[in-house]
Structure formats: C-alpha cells, structure tokens
Specification:
With 306 residues, the protein is an alpha/beta fold. The chain contains 14 helices and six strands. Helix 2 (50-55) links the parallel strand 2 and strand 3 (58-59).
C-alpha cells in the first residue's frame, strides 16, 4: 500500500497542488498541519477555503478547540487509523502539511528527539540561578503538564531537558514519550515542494498582507472574547501572538505586521532545514516548472514507486 505525502514550507503552494492531485486521483486529503487542527483559527493558519473543503474531503482540520491538548503522538495514531480506513475504501490518501513532527509521527513513529542546543540549556540554567528552580518548573507546568507531573521541581537537569526539547521543537517531550514508535504499515512516497528563497519570502509577505485584509485581527478578537489568549500553546504561535501583543498595546500595527512576516520567514527556513534532512523526499522546485508538469511528475513518482 502506497501513500503520497506532500511536504514543504509555509506558503510554498502545497494546498493548490494537493487539491489538483486529489481531483486527479479521486483522493482525500489528510492534513499534517499542527495548527489547522484547531477550530476558530482559520485565517492565521491559512486553512483551505470553505469551498475547497466542500469539494475535497479533508481530515484533521477543526478537530480540537484551541484550549485542548493535542500532541504529535496522538496525531500519528489517529492519522494512521484514518489512512487505513481510506485505503480500505479504495480511496487515495494524500497527506499534506509542513509540520515535521506530525509527518514523523505518522510515518516513523516518534522517538525521543536527538536535538540539543547548548545556548538554550545555558539560558535555562541562568534563569534558574537568577529566579530559582520554581520559576522554570512553573513554566514547564504550562507548556508540558504531563512531564511536570512526573518530575520534582528540584530535578533541574530533567526540567531543563524538557524545556530544551520544547523550545527547539515546539513539541513537549511527553509527546515523544507517549507516542507509538512503530513504523507505519504503508509505503510512503515523499514529495517536497520548494521555491527560490526570494520568491518564497515574497509569497510569505503577500500572504500575511492578505491575512490582515481578510480579518486576522478580528479573528484574534473573537478568540479573545471566547476566553482564549496567548498563554495557550495553540495561540502562542506565529500570526497570533503578534496580534495579541498589538491588541494589548505592546506594539503598533505596522510592527505587528513586520513581526508576523519576519517570524513566518524564519519558520519556513526551519521547516526546510527539517525536511532537507530526510533523504526519502523527492524535491520539486515550483519555480522551474508549470503546474501541469509538476502534477505529472508527482503522479509519475507515485504510480511508479514500488
């Protein structure tokens, strides 16, 4: 059994390509986006438009409220079950997204991450020396309550490790520890979409401007009225934390827009760095071919891959 995975950085054009692929293959889209799982976060996460969601069935969009916990491990287990059901119905699952940990959880299972950063470790050591172990542990309780429940506040070595993993990966270390480490029982055909950096950055900047025009600020005001704020993991992300700062009067509107663009470009760079490490991905530069050629190449890879 083969499953097509379309990966790449934010704003590269995954949605457009995946919709056309789904029409060609009679497939359904399995989203692998760690923020599109949340309801009421439509504009800031660049969810597909309503008419697109109606045309092609999508899975793992709007499955949790912003204040509900959802880990990469949970996604991996649930997405595997979804794919198994689709294959059983002779439908073609097309996994689409830019969340590296979601993709890893789905295909490989999540193993304890081999990631480390001495500067991040030292930052937390300094904070503990200045503010005490309680300060770092209190933050751990907010971002990873499962790990905090297992650790003593004075076990600073393990507390710092948990904070380090979260700061680098954006995923709590408990998500790795809870997850299924068994590889998937399907054959993954990876396609990575990319563009020249200057073009990708232009697309990111343009997307942010369109988000503002579509009502991103009003979307955040609506979230705030529901009692949800930037302390939630789901909202402490690009495009939302900056708007909360603007609404709180901490920054100007122009500065808010500048920061969203800057953070989005940095996020795209991190996504590319992550995916470039995976030798299974066949990369296609969208700037070098027209869309039909790209579609034909992807379909060729999928149908010929054994």
């Amino acid at each position: 059994m083969k499953v097509l995975l379309i990966v790449g950085p934010t704003a590269v054009g995954k949605t457009e390509i995946s919709l056309r692929l789904a029409r060609s293959l009679g497939g359904e889209i399995v989203s692998a986006d760690s923020r599109q799982v949340y309801r009421y976060m439509d504009i800031g996460t660049a969810k597909p438009a309503k008419h697109e969601l109606e045309q092609i069935p999508h899975h793992f969009i709007d499955v949790r409220n912003p204040d509900e916990y959802y880990s990469a491990g949970e996604y991996g287990r649930e997405a595997r079950a979804c794919i198994k059901n689709l294959l059983g119905e002779n439908k073609v699952p097309i996994v689409v997204g830019g969340s590296g940990f979601y993709i890893r959880a789905l295909v490989d299972g999540l193993f304890a991450p081999r990631i480390s950063d001495s500067q991040v470790k030292e930052k937390w050591r300094l904070r503990i020396r200045k503010e005490g172990a309680e300060s770092a542990f209190a933050y751990l309780q907010k971002i990873d309550p499962q790990s905090a429940a297992r650790l003593h506040p004075n076990d600073t070595q393990r507390v710092i490790r948990a904070l380090e993993v979260y700061e680098i990966s954006g995923t709590p270390i408990s998500a790795f520890q809870e997850s299924d480490k068994t590889p998937a029982d399907f054959s993954a055909v990876f396609v990575g979409l990319t563009r020249k950096r200057e073009i990708l950055y232009e697309r990111i900047n343009s997307r942010v401007d369109k988000m503002i025009e579509k009502g991103l600020i009003d979307e955040v005001i609506s979230l705030k009225k529901k009692g949800w704020g930037p302390k939630l993991n789901a909202l402490r992300t690009v495009g939302y934390k900056e708007v909360f700062d603007f609404l709180d009067g901490a920054i100007s509107k122009d500065e808010m827009i500048r920061l969203i663009k800057q953070s989005s470009r940095r996020y795209a760079k991190r996504q590319l760095t992550w995916f470039r490490r995976d030798s299974r991905i066949h990369w296609i530069d969208l700037d070098e071919h027209d869309e039909q050629k790209v579609l034909n190449d992807i379909l060729g890879l999928f149908t010929s891959n054994s």
